[in-house]
Design goal:
mainly alpha
């Protein structure tokens, strides 16, 4: 597991995760899985598409989680 990725759900985060928080976690994940901190120009498009897809999937996950004592978030 990438140690740079932090838990984004309450109550671990005192406030709701922002889009920037979610995108940063997605970027760290793609960097870890691909083995590239920054992709070469010929890999940039697929790298960015993966970050976008993981950002969207993470936002959907966080919006749908039911956590005791915290209201369910609305999907963005």
């Amino acid at each position: 597991m990438c140690r740079s990725i932090k838990t984004l759900r309450p109550p671990v985060m005192p406030e709701e995760a922002t889009e920037d928080d979610i995108r940063a976690a997605a970027l760290q994940y793609v960097r870890k899985v691909s083995g590239f901190r920054a992709p070469a120009a010929h890999n940039r498009e697929v790298f960015d598409q993966a970050v976008d897809a993981i950002t969207e999937a993470t936002a959907t996950l966080l919006a749908g989680l039911e956590i005791r004592g915290h209201p369910t978030r609305k999907a963005s």
